[in-house]
Specification:
With about 325 residues, the chain is an alpha+beta fold. Strands 2-4-5-7-6 form a five-stranded mixed sheet, with helices on one face. A two-stranded antiparallel sheet has the order 1-3. The relative contact order is 0.09. It is elongated. The two termini are about 55 Å apart. Helix content is about 60%, strand content about 15%.
Length: about 325
Amino acid sequence: MQQEFGGLANLSRVSLRSAIYTIIFVLAIIMVITLLVLWNLYIIQDYRTIKGLHIAMYGQSHVHTTVRWFVLAMGIAFLAIVIAVLSVFYANTLRGNRFKQQQRDFANMVTHELRLPLSSIQIFAQTLRQRIMDPDERDRFADGILSECSRLGLLIDQLLKFQQMEQGKLTLRRVQLDAVRFLEDFVARWPRPLKLRVEETVRVDADPLLLELVLTNFVTNAEKYGRGSVPEIVLSRSGGDANLAVRDQGRTLDRKYLKRIFRKFYRVPNLNTRRQNGIGLGLYIVKQIAEMHGGSAHAIPLEPPMGNEFFIRIPAVN
């Protein structure tokens, strides 16, 4: 609970800082416009005085009006330049502050996510060492240790893949895969129950390790937000593409979040987000892997009682 309120406090500070920058920017624009308007009025008034003296000396026929329009044009051009410069400065300032806040949040999330499984493993191990327990209870504690190790391994794998992507060092090692066998093997090795539905057999030319990371992220999210339901993996074909999807029975996503959730560090803003583990990189990595294979990543809400479907679409082998 303390972490949740801490996250909300950070969000409030960021919003307050952005609001202050916005107010300063608006006030600066108003001040510049006011000064330029006064300057133009002064120039025009001065010009009218000179024009009156000119008419008194030489008459109306010798009056030229081009100078006034030139001065007005120069004032407007200068105003546009000043507003453009202030707008760029304002945008860069907000972007820089947002990036710094993202870095701080990311460091805090990673630290928190590393501590949680390590603390659980330590507690399980200490309990196993200090207590005499029956085989079923011992197996339950051992399963807890293995589960936390898997969670820790996924986090480390995400961080490594993210670093490789940012540096442009992540490479594909493509092999031709029978998608049905690949999914059957994945389901058999997953430590918890999964459903598998094959609508059409498909072969793909893909990197099996990266494809497994995609499924791991999808299934982990489905288990996390699926309200206790068993995730369902669905293999289908759409034209020349293979669709690898994972469906859950969790809360249906609002459509306005469907594209944002694949952004770097993005997490859907709700009160439960702070209570869930994760660092906001899983779906971003999925999207990058799908695009590296020449495909794309998507999320769609489903009709009740189903929740959401997350899937990648990659070219199939004919």
